Amino acid sequence: MWRIAFLLLVASCSPVDQESVRTVAAIEVPFHSDADRADLLAMFRRSAAAAGLHVDDGSAQWREFEREANILAPQDRATFDVGVWRGADDDEAEILADDRFHPGRVWVTFRRGSLPDRSTRIREPLIAEIRAHWPDARMIPITPRGGLPLVDDLVLTERGYRIKRSTAGRYGLPPSSPLVGP
Question: Where are the domains of the chain?
Fold first, then answer.
């Protein structure tokens, strides 16, 4: 009987559309004060409300979980962990933001979404608002597979972040790629 139940469960689950969850843009927001946290959260809430989305701020829960689990070193733990979601049951993430492994520098990532045009209408104005509020915010390169490089693999150039030449191979990038820096 349990085998039938398992097969029904597996059959009812649909696979995640890998293209819809692909990261298409990311920006690093430097927090200089507690007000920065409130400002970014307010931007997320305004954008979410205008698009019929909702914001989940799990920052306090993650801080408590990471403290209790004691798996990550204190300097690598998140102080900001927020998602902007579509659907009452968090059906689709539009925006994820955290500073795990780079405290005080929140990486805001944007997904392609199941309807890319709809996601673009949320993403582009929000990135513009972030850049206007934080002139020192920097775009983060997206790897060819839609992932983010490790923070230690980035180098800051006059054009923003680039992937270190010495680590480009691990992302499948030739040294001549525009994503690669010195």
Answer: 17-140, 141-182
- Scan for tokens 């480009």, then name that residue: 168
Q: What is the pLDDT of residues 74-133, one digit of tens each?
A: 677 678 889 999 888 878 899 999 988 888 899 999 998 888 888 999 999 999 999 999
pTM of the predicted structure, to 2 decimals: 0.83
Residues contacting residue 157 through CB under 8 Å, at least 6 positions apart: 181, 182
**Could you write out the three-class secondary structure of 8-68?**
HHHHHCCCCCCCCCCEEEEEEEECCCHHHHHHHHHHHHHHHHHHCCEEEECHHHHHHHHHH
Q: What confidence tens digit (pLDDT) does each residue in 155-165 have?
A: 999 888 999 99
Cβ partners under 8 Å of residue 81, min gap 6: 57, 58, 59, 61, 62, 97, 98, 100
Q: Which fold has domain 17-140?
A: Double Stranded RNA Binding Domain (3.30.160)
